[in-house]
Amino acid sequence: MASLVSIHDLTKTYQRGAEKVQVLHGLDLEIEEGDFVALMGPSGSGKTTLLNLIGGLDTPTSGSIEVAGQRIDRMSSGQLSHWRSQHVGFVFQFYNLMPALSAQKNVELPLLLTRLNAAQRRRNARIALTLVGLADRASHKPSELSGGQQQRVAIARAIVSDPTLLICDEPTGDLDRQSAEEILGLLQTLNREHGKTIVMVTHDPKAAEYASHVLHLDKGTLVEQARHAA
Hints:
This protein is α/β, with parallel strands linked by helices.
């Protein structure tokens, strides 16, 4: 299977006061199209930094990042913003839903950046909500939904534009075990049945079991890779 993400000699250094802190050290990585990757490692190992670089939320100090044949490390901030809107869906730990909007309207938000008309946006959002099992909650606001349901809405919002890549940062970190397992099962279904390529940061070994491929980082370096049986 072809690589969707190709990373070569990637470094990231932050300036903290007078001190330079190198977070990633010459990292090489290939992520295949259709893979479900879990990134694990201790706090400060570079997991979220790597996730943000793959998703185009940050830029590297040096090295290359190619996603679906495009060198995103060479893009300007404006180009990256446009690229993200077309190719990446994001799922965060705390949902980031707009509290005054219904589930339907929250899911429609990414589509406001497209040329779709209002009827098309409503239709696509309803399809995404159906896919995550929440079509019957379309008119509910976030405060009227459980944590697990709010995360389902966030996932529907992330996939409504049919992105190339789904980026998940601790997507179950704020959920109870049952809700977490439901969300992880949903992500696994999106990967296996709908072909979504997923990169997920998690500290939870049980969550990582849902992925097909686990990467362990330590001090900005890949120290271990494991592939689960299909």
